[in-house]
């Protein structure tokens, strides 16, 4: 097996030897933030956007990342190069660090910055070809004035409960509603629907993470002449949509063909979804930061 190196606060440690303290508040309380990022053919997809979201999450929870954004950007690229992976999944974690056995973060003076670069666990092609069956679950999305879903924090219990409910129902993903009954997002992805040629996705204030893939899809819509509206919608709107799909770093663009036992339109991935997936797969290799610029230069010759 290939050796994998984990970046830990400026040093590289072998994957098997990379550990954090049991007194780290990330472990004790979920006190920290993270990003999941993909590398496609050496291109770290929208790295800057991921970092901006990370630094915004940090500001919101008052966690000082001990690196400038440019330095962290450089470290991510370096970690990809060090692991020699041209197609990879990156998990970037910043935890509050070691503290005492009490909530008080003022006792934590050693934030941990960790970059894991590993192989991607791809969804089977069948998922993209056939589409997903999903459900909505009783667990509601965190309300924005408790723990704002725009913060990509290490506290993912809300989403984990949703995943448990999805597993128990034997489906691959589930939707959360917000406190008012509007559709928020999946356990690990954003939702879009298509109705009469127009795309809709819930606005951030409904209670969803502002996904990097979601934004990429909105950009692709603009480029391809589709109208997208950030507008709240209900389960009923999902049931009667012409197409429904999920977006996320791991999921990319996955069609949803059945929701709560209701077949969506004809029950197969629709043309807009398929078109956007095709466009997305082209975008991901060019939009971002090249980790192996010498390869890209050689290709151009
Ligand atoms: N919502 C949640 C709750 C997520 O965990 C994710 C995955 N990061 C997304 C949406 C999709 O975001 P992105 O496209 O940035 O991966």
From TrEMBL:
Q: Pathway listed for it?
A: Amino-acid biosynthesis; L-leucine biosynthesis; L-leucine from 3-methyl-2-oxobutanoate: step 4/4; Amino-acid biosynthesis; L-isoleucine biosynthesis; L-isoleucine from 2-oxobutanoate: step 4/4; Amino-acid biosynthesis; L-valine biosynthesis; L-valine from pyruvate: step 4/4
* Annotated EC: 2.6.1.42
Top-level EC class as recorded in UniProt: transferase
Keywords attached to this entry: Amino-acid biosynthesis, Aminotransferase, Branched-chain amino acid biosynthesis, Pyridoxal phosphate, Transferase
Identify the species of origin: Desmospora profundinema
Q: What family classification does the UniProt entry report for this protein?
A: Belongs to the class-IV pyridoxal-phosphate-dependent aminotransferase family.
Task: Read off the Gene3D superfamilies from this record.
Answer: 3.30.470.10, D-amino Acid Aminotransferase, subunit A, domain 2 (3.20.10.10)
Its biological purpose is as follows: Acts on leucine, isoleucine and valine.
Q: Which reaction does it catalyse?
A: L-isoleucine + 2-oxoglutarate = (S)-3-methyl-2-oxopentanoate + L-glutamate; L-leucine + 2-oxoglutarate = 4-methyl-2-oxopentanoate + L-glutamate; L-valine + 2-oxoglutarate = 3-methyl-2-oxobutanoate + L-glutamate
Q: What is this protein called?
A: Branched-chain-amino-acid aminotransferase
User: Which cofactors does the annotated protein need, by name?
Assistant: pyridoxal 5'-phosphate
Q: Supply one GO molecular-function term.
A: branched-chain-amino-acid transaminase activity
What InterPro entries does its record include? Aminotrans_IV, Aminotrans_IV_CS, Aminotransferase-like, B_amino_transI, BCAT-like_C, BCAT-like_N, Class-IV_PLP-Dep_Aminotrnsfr
């Amino acid at each position: 097996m290939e050796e994998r190196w984990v970046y830990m606060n400026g040093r590289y440690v072998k994957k098997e030897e990379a550990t954090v303290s049991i007194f780290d508040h990330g472990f004790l309380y979920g006190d920290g933030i993270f990003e999941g990022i993909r590398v496609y053919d050496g291109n770290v997809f929208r790295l800057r956007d991921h970092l901006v979201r990370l630094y915004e999450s940090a500001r919101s929870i008052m966690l000082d990342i001990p690196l400038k954004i440019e330095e962290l950007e450089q470290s991510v690229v370096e970690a990809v190069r060090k692991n020699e992976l041209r197609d990879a999944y990156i998990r970037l974690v910043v935890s509050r660090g070691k503290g005492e056995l009490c909530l008080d973060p003022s006792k934590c003076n050693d934030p941990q910055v960790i970059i894991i670069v590993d192989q991607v666990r791809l969804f089977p092609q069948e998922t993209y070809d056939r589409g997903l069956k999903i459900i909505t679950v009783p667990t509601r999305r965190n309300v924005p004035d408790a723990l704002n879903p725009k913060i990509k924090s290490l506290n993912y219990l809300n989403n984990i409960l949703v995943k448990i409910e999805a597993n128990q129902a034997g489906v691959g993903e589930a939707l959360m509603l917000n406190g008012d009954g509007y559709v928020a997002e999946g356990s690990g992805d954003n939702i879009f629907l298509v109705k009469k040629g127009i795309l809709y996705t819930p606005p951030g204030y409904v209670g969803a993470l502002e996904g990097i893939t979601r934004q990429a899809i909105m950009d692709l819509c603009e480029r391809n002449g589709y109208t997208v509206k950030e507008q709240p919608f209900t389960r009923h709107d999902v049931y009667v949509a012409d197409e429904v799909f999920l977006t996320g770093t791991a999921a990319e663009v996955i069609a949803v063909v059945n929701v709560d036992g209701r077949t969506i339109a004809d029950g197969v991935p629709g043309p807009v979804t398929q078109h956007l997936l095709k466009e997305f797969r082209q975008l991901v290799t060019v939009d971002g930061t090249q980790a192996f610029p010498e390869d890209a230069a050689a290709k151009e010759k």
